[in-house]
Amino acid sequence: MNKLKLWDYHIHTKLCNHARGNVEDYVKQAIKINLGEIGISDHFPMNLLPEESHDFAMKKNEFPEYLVECKRAKNRYKNEITVKIASEVDYTPSSFQGYKKIVSPYLETMDLDYIIGSIHVIKIPETKTFAIDGPIANEKFKLFGEDRIFIAYYNTLIQMVKDGSDFYNIVGHMDLPKKYGHFLGKSEKIWEKIEILLDLIEEKEMVVEINHSGYYRPVGIQYPDDKIIRELVKREIPIVLGSDSHYIKYLAYNFDKTLAKLKRMQFEEKIPVNLCKFSKREKTLIKLDSVI
Length: 292
Ligand SMILES: [Zn+2]
Ligand SMILES: [Zn+2]
What we know:
The chain contains 7 helices and 11 strands. The chain is of the alpha/beta class. It has one domain: Metal-dependent hydrolases (TIM Barrel, Alpha-Beta Barrel). It has a 7-stranded parallel beta sheet with strand order 1-2-3-4-7-8-9. The chain has a two-stranded antiparallel ribbon with strand order 5-6. The chain starts with 6 loop residues before the first strand and ends in a 5-residue tail after the last strand. The structure holds zinc ion (ZN) (2 copies). One zinc ion (ZN) binds at residues 10, 12, 88, 244.
């Protein structure tokens, strides 16, 4: 049986101000390492988030240019690789309707193959919003403790799925607050939230990303944790692999480890694992066994 080549669905370019390489650099590298498909998913402009986030994404007027750059690479390399065009769009309860309005025209014209829904900014009730993946996170963990931060994060994620299941296709890095080494504890309270979230994801037929950027962050492991991944397998929630590369060297980084992990879980749980691809926001399920 011919095995399918791998695909990486989470890529950032220098347009977001905190990555290196343009779209073409990534596409060329993807061809070099023999990927079958690459999804470019740069941060959507963060102009509707708190001001301190604004510089971590392209400006509002750069988004059309980004699409042009993606389309150019898609055409230029179409005989060597499939290029998908996407965006990672932040969710906060107060920005969601605004983002939906700005992004919708691009969905109507079928310019985007999928949207990754991610939470980088949270709010603990009665306090100011802050970025859970920024350097300030450590200070906030000292102040609020793991339980309060993870619970605020999961409450927001639950809200994202409730509000946005027809807008977001993929739930991105779904335990990001552990980035600086704050492991997801064994707290029952946190697990209750995760279970509510997984029930909703399952009900809304969304897809979850296994994000590999944690491997080169202090936490040293993928997002989400193995325990959550096993739940995805048991619930037959489709999975997509993303490197969250901000440098071309991280393209498909440690995907082999995740595939081995998924194969082991598939065997132990006796449930076939489905990976997934998107084209113009339609998902196609792909059996883990049919991939390299
Ligand atoms: Zn992200
Ligand atoms: Zn990202």
